[in-house]
Amino acid sequence: MRHPGTGRTIAVDPRERSDDPNQYKAEFLCKIDQLGRDAACRDSLTKCPRRDDGKGGYLAVWKVAPKGIENPRWDDWKSTEAEPFCFYDDRPDDVLQRIRDRILSDFRQLPINAGTVASQPSPHTLRGAETNFYANTIEQQFDVTILGQKVRIVATPVEYTWNYGDGTVVGPQPSAGGALPEGQWGEKTRTSHAYAQTGDFSVVLTSHFRGTYSVNGGPPLPIPGQGSFSSAPVTVSVWRSVTRNYADNCMQNQQGDGCPAGPFER
């Protein structure tokens, strides 16, 4: 792929390659070349409102072909189900390629909300007991402008990494976890953790999002790779429980161990 800053060809991490089996091309509904624009373009200019900079748009459609076909004859392939859209550039392929080259970088800079951390029990838990953690995350949508084109980006959480604050990190894994029924805390879950020491620990959730993007109302195309976003830390206080057997009868000896006036309650 081309680096969005330098324009040089760079290697692509296999994990960031798109698994979309198709390739896409935007085609104008009128002829645009060095000799000018045909009559159909006047209709396009009427249907596409001029931008604030005065530039007019031209109606275009998206065409789709299998990715395995090199240099497809686009006349042989039908357009997608999407309605014609307005394109504000005379070279759609060049603009689309430039957007495609930078979309992952732009995606990772969006103000995507990683979600919040919930725990059971909260805000205190016991040493050695399973504390159930789970993430509250949602799909998010952003409308941005890239290279003069309107781009809609949809970010969907797909994996989660848990840093429990005591040196234990779990993930990325697909489970966001979930709340246990009231009274069932202490059970082991896919996202629970048992602390070996007492103290206050900062728990941080990192949510990994995949995204799609559509240009000027075109079909949603997959964004190669993921964006990772971290939540604000949540403090969990880990306490210890103590069990003792007492022989004193508090009615007879109110100063005995375990009694309201005894040494452990003062």
Radius of gyration: 29 Å
Q: In CATH terms, what is the architecture of the largest domain?
A: Sandwich
Which bin fits the share of residues in helices?
Answer: under 10%
Overall mean pLDDT score? Answer: 79
Beta-strand residue fraction: 35-45%
Structural class: mainly beta
Number of strands: 16
Written as H for each helix and E for each strand, in order along the chain, the element string is EEEHEEHEEEEEEEEEEE
CATH topological fold name of the largest domain: Immunoglobulin-like
**Silhouette:** rod-shaped
| Total tally of structural domains | 2
Distance between the termini: 71 Å
CATH class of the largest domain: Mainly Beta
- Low-confidence segments, given as residue ranges, are 1-16
The CATH superfamily name of the largest domain is: Immunoglobulins
**Main beta-sheet strand count, sense and barrel state:** 8 strands, mixed
- List the total number of helices: 2
Describe the SSE topology.
Layout lengths: L21 E7 L3 E2 L2 E2 L1 H9 L10 E9 L18 E3 L4 H17 L7 E5 L3 E3 L3 E7 L3 E7 L2 E15 L5 E5 L19 E2 L4 E17 L5 E2 L4 E4 L3 E6 L27
Parallel strand pairs: 7-16
Antiparallel strand pairs: 1-4, 2-3, 4-5, 6-8, 8-12, 9-10, 10-11, 10-13, 13-14, 13-15, 13-16
